[in-house]
Amino acid sequence: MSEAVEPLSDREFRDQLVAIMGSLRAFARGLCGNREMADDLAQDALTRAWAARHSFAKGTNFRAWIFIILRNQFYTSIRKNSRMVAWDPDMAARHLIAPETQHDGLNLQDVEVALSKLPAEQREVLMLVGASGISYEEAAQIMGCAIGTIKSRLARGRMALASLIDGPELSEAHAKGEMVTRSNVTAGGGLQVAT
Amino acid sequence: MQNEQWNEEAAPESGANQNFAAKEGAAPFTAQQLSDPISAALKKIHDSVADEPLPDDFLDLLDQIDRKISAADGEA
What we know:
The complex is a heterodimer of chains A (195) and B (76).
Chain A: H1 10-32, H2 35-51, H3 62-80, H4 89-95, H5 108-116, H6 120-131, H7 136-143, H8 147-166, H9 168-182
Helix pairs in contact in A: 1-2, 1-3, 1-6, 2-3, 3-7, 4-5, 5-8, 6-8, 7-8, 8-9
Chain B: H1 31-34, H2 37-50, H3 56-75
């Protein structure tokens, strides 16, 4: 059993797992929209990651590595089990966030419900890039697609989300306003939008 | 406002916001950018989950891992 990679020590690997747990749960919740199912997925990914720890190369991107494990598991599960295919908007409102969460912008539950109506690939890229602030490059690595695909899914996802939240009239301005402001961010940040 | 995610100048040592990948040299986000309502809501949703206390199952898994590490240390 020889592997070309230099693995982390078990202790280092354990610390990486601890550090990623919150983000992993959030990504899982965004993918499947159900608290229990998301935590099952995240726990499964953590277990699988630990079992495969010797195949993780020291110095490479741990977050991308474990997110890929979780994502593969999610898509495998929904292929096997049609009950996991669709987000249930009512479940989304009940399960995703604590109802008492206040926010001085959009109503978060409205956003949750709108998210639940999007295609999985748009929801996923919104959660990765929009919500987690993961770069296009890393999102492309996680989703196994081209950076251009990430950008177009993000743009379509934002437009669809705005349309669901605002109604079609306001949504274009919302989405366009976003593009204008984002493009002011210089290279180096995780959230920059290339024009 | 929700600008605590971006006040890196105020807390340059923190490094706690690596999820946002705001690297050194990135321009600070302006009030206008922070006020983009969709981005702000998505970040809030993400953070509200990421900051939830871990369920017992996760802590149990960590305990198992810690026991394995301790046992391996004992053998060494």
